[in-house]
Amino acid sequence: MGWGLLDWLPLIIGAALVAYWVAILIVLIIDGRPPARTLVWVMVLVALPGLGLVLYFFFGRNLKKKTMKGGWIKEVRRLSGPTLDRIGRQYAEESAEARRWCRENGYSDLVRLIETSERSHPLPAYDVDVITSGREKFDKLFADLAAATDTINMQYFIWERDELSAQLTEVLLGCLRAGVEVRILNDFIGNIQYRKDELARLRAAGARVKYDLNELGRVNYRDHRKIVVIDGVRGYTGGINVGQRYVDGGPRYPAWRDTHVRYTGAAVSDLQKLFATRWHSQTGEDLFSERFFPAEYPAGATRSFAHTVSTGVESPWEPARRAHVVAIGLARDRLWIQSPYFVPNDAVFEAILNSALSGVDVRIMMTGLPDKKVAWYAAQSYFGPVLEAGGRIFHYTDGFFHPKTMTVDAALCSIGTMNLDVRSLELHEELMVWFYDPALARRHDRIFQDDLKRCDEITLDWLDSLTPMQVFRNSAARLASDLL
What we know:
By secondary structure, the protein is an alpha/beta fold. It has three domains: 10-61, no CATH class; 66-103 and 122-304, Endonuclease, Chain A; 319-483, Endonuclease, Chain A (2-Layer Sandwich), CATH 3.30.870. The protein has helices at 5-31, 35-47, 49-60, 63-68, 71-90, 92-104, 108-118, 134-146, 163-177, 197-204, 245-248, 268-283, 319-330, 346-357, 373-388, 422-427, 438-452, 460-464, 468-479, and strands spanning 123-131, 151-156, 181-187, 208-212, 227-230, 234-238, 256-257, 260-264, 303-311, 334-338, 342-343, 361-367, 392-396, 400-401, 405-408, 412-416, 420-421, 430-436, 455-458. Strand 15 (405-408) and strand 16 (412-416) form a beta hairpin.
């Protein structure tokens, strides 16, 4: 008696599953991920063949390798090379002075790592203004935008539709009427929930508006940078997006504490480079010209050395994350960190523990009023080792806490967009600006000390008071760190 299709079906299904399992093993092994992460995805894909494939498509694929093979990366490097080389030659003496200061003070490893992985040099930044509130940032930004004469390039993770965005829209419409070119680049997923009518008005008035990382398969990668470059010579970056809540806390929080930085000088060219790179990826337009990278950058009353470091899908070395690891390891006296979230990857976490165990004054300040409960719970699973190693942890409770900063030995200061969580450290488009300037670092340390007045310190007794169910909740949340 012959076998029918139904008789063969179990064997066909079994063979298909074996082929599927072998295929996913080959793909994951070739991808070269850390072993623990590879095993997690093996378990997900084996246990959930259908759902697992969907999850892997959106959250598991390593698109950095694919991006680096793309032609536009080589094209951007070809286009940017002559302009960036010109700036490098023009400010070679200042870059050498910054390197010399780092060498004399024991921080050469940091500057060398950024130069090697980022292909950039420390450059002069003038009149660096550390801004600690949304109101101050937008008052200054509106004034600088209104004074623009040629170009405005803006890149934001979030662009809400509210009172603040209405004010910004009116300012930009005035710039457009005055003949200023306006380019706006926003993250696709970060803005998917917000109305676009104001941006449509700006587009109708002549602004060019684009959305970054807008392909369906790239939703796990987001453009988290905040950049404004005005006339190629004045730059802004930091944690503050476009939205009223970044000014007053919105309906959820009594206040919003954040940090942004504003400066002029040749260091602005690095912000412009990052904007021009992502803009080219979406439009193909070449902005690497003297119009956007001036032949001369204005000086100012006070000078700092700024070294911009980034990470993203086009950055195979994840330079911003590596710079954090190196800087943490170089700390000899104090290491003060501010981040809304604390879900670090293994390298950053081990570096922090090493510093604390070495007797460095390690202080980590994060929000005490969470916006993402899972990330907030996951952070608590990291507290115990930090406290036991001698570090200190603080919850800021006066409002939502959103800065992304680090100071080392009251000598180095870093301000930018990168949170201390796995997504920012490894997946998002991010940037940090390292300032080799003790005066600026001490100024930021005073800001940190003022923030301490609005914090509750986390202690081992506080951790011991957690119930077994809360400890389990925190550890379970940590398992999802890649998605937080």
